[in-house]
Design goal:
138 residues, alpha+beta, Beta-Lactamase, 2 domains, five-stranded antiparallel β-sheet, 5 strands, 51% helix, 21% strand, Roadblock/LAMTOR2 domain-containing protein
Length: 138
């Protein structure tokens, strides 16, 4: 990996495996001090995304700690219509941000499943109505 001087060989193997997935658009890895260790994106995008998402992680961690002081945020996932971002934010250690395209096939399958459930509900209601009509006419 061309821009990974601070990444161990084991981490490099994991990054290559993640980036081999065609839906993965990019990966950003920072150290405990939030210094960039690796990115597969251009630097402008990397610094913008990393600063915003890691700050959001701090806010989310604080909110979770307000609810339960013994709990802690480890990961969070943000999903938009087109992308999904997985952020791993341990208190100490490397922080990883993965950005993935949402494939149209998975969106289409989810929509078809919703439509099938919707249609099944109507079919069930029609069947119940027919049974009620039959019992009234007898």
């Amino acid at each position: 990996m061309e821009n990974s001087p601070n990444v161990s060989p084991m981490e490099e193997v994991m990054l290559k495996r993640i980036l081999a997935n065609p839906t993965v658009e990019g990966v950003i890895v920072t150290n405990e001090q939030r210094q960039l260790q690796y990115t597969s994106l251009n630097n402008n995008v990397t610094f913008f995304i990393a600063s915003k998402l890691l700050s959001f992680g701090d806010i989310a961690r604080s909110a979770i700690r307000d609810i339960d002081p013994d709990d802690n945020l480890l990961t969070f996932r943000l999903r938009t219509r087109e992308k999904e971002m997985m952020v791993i934010t341990p208190v100490d250690g490397m922080q990883v941000i993965g950005i993935q395209k949402i494939t149209s096939s998975s969106s289409i399958l989810a929509k078809q499943k919703q439509e099938n459930e919707y249609n099944d509900n109507f079919a069930h209601e029609d069947l119940m109505q027919d049974e009620r009509t039959d019992s009234i006419t007898k």
